[in-house]
Amino acid sequence: MTAQVNVQKRNPRPGHRAVIIGGGISGLSSAFFLSQRAAEEHFPLRVTVFEASNRFGGVLRTLTHEDFRMEAGADAFYGGQNDTLDLCSKLGLQEDVIESSPCFRRFVGLKNKQLYPIPGLSGSFSDIFRFLSSPHLSFFEKCRTLEEPLVPCRKEGGDESLASFIRRRLGQGFYQAFVKPLAQGVCMMDPEHLSLEALFPRLRQAEKTYGSLARSFLNKTSWRKEKGRAEFLTLRQGLEGLIHALVRELGECELRKLSPVRQCSYNEGWEISMEDGTVLRADILGLAMNACDASNLLFEAAPGLSRELSAIRYDSIATVNLIYKVEDVPAQGLDFGFLVPMGGERCPFSSLKWFGKTSDGKYLLMRAFLSETMLPGIFHESDEMLKQRMRIFLSDFFDVRAKPLFTDIERYPSALPQYETGHFERVERIEKTALQYPGLFFTGNGFRGFGITDCIHQARISVSGLQFPLF
Prior knowledge:
- This protein folds into 3 domains: 16-58 and 239-313 and 420-464, FAD/NAD(P)-binding domain; 76-104 and 314-417, Alpha-Beta Complex (Polyamine Oxidase, Chain A, domain 2), CATH 3.90.660; 125-223, protoporphyrinogen ix oxidase, domain 3, CATH 1.10.3110.
- Helices cover 33% and strands 24% of the residues.
- It has a 7-stranded mixed sheet, with helices on both faces. Strands 10-2-1-14-20 form a 5-stranded parallel sheet, with helices on one face. A 3-stranded antiparallel sheet has the order 5-9-6, with helices on one face.
- It has helices spanning 25-40, 83-90, 125-131, 139-146, 162-170, 172-187, 196-199, 201-210, 213-219, 240-249, 291-297, 303-310, 376-379, 383-398, 423-434, 452-464; strands spanning 16-21, 45-50, 62-65, 68-71, 77-78, 97-99, 107-111, 114-118, 232-235, 254-256, 261-266, 270-274, 279-282, 284-288, 314-325, 337-341, 351-357, 363-371, 406-417, 440-443.
- It is an alpha/beta fold and 471 residues long.
- A hairpin with a 2-residue loop joins strand 7 and strand 8 (114-118).
């Protein structure tokens, strides 16, 4: 069904309502920006947020153990863009922003029970040269990698997978030895399907503009990091502090937990049918949730839109937080790092963040991430079995014999979108089709970036694109 409504002819009714479904960072940010805009434009608008679970925040949750904190899910936000920093400033949190763990600056590979430093997937050719000193590439594979400036540009338009791009430009050996395990460990995505345009646009642009990664590095200063600015940030009291601040700021809005929605339909305005049988009418509908869940809500009202949404695939993630006394961890000089199993190495995780010591130097924090897609057998084991596997791994690889002081396991079903080839093309079709339904907008990690800053940015852009008045 296609809604044909002249958005300019009718006068605004008193008490317009906006309903946002999803109480994570995307939904609460949308409510904040929407309330702020309505107040600035003196537009009468009631904002309601529905959250199906018993808490707001989604994957943003901070655990507390004795005198220190750790994150149960997302653990940092990108400081290279201003959206999260601006929101923190508006919420009075600017003094609480601190640099996140240095583990994000150091990647460590694990192969044949040996640790070695590796560059991350930053996209700079200087990182590629560092790979060439590795013993894990043969002489011929190194020669093939050095031929990159001679490789012709791709003539076909459109998106390409990360695997295809790396094989073309740097060779199969380089891809197999480094890029594949890094993409699977850090991004927790299959590089054979991972969209280059969505996740590594600088690589795509380098080839398009300069013809090669090497020439791009020699000619472009934007590869270099901005000095004096941390890339990854967090809050002193933990990232859940951002959620608490948003909830406080939204005091005049209606925030409802344990309020699952069954269906959304359109009839000269939105009708939201709740699981308990009640029906609400709204002029604005924001779906700040998993795209597949949004698809289910719109199955009858917008079947074409629903089909496009359902095609965005998600992976389930589990996290294992561990706390040890420093004296119980003979870490062989590894004070911090982002540990990634390299090709053929069997580990009970996709990646392990070794956060280093707490500020008082007494404890050491680490967190393992498991992808259902990458490790289906281990992922579906019981919590006790996961704990046991982690203890065995740490004992075998790092000689950690003591039990951890604290262990926490969290599972996030269908939480990580898989940005597959052609992802942005699909998102553009979704956004274009959504224009047929006045007041409808989407936000969340399934569309234009899955980091905290990406979600806040998209919430702000989506709200700014709405027309006031709608009717």
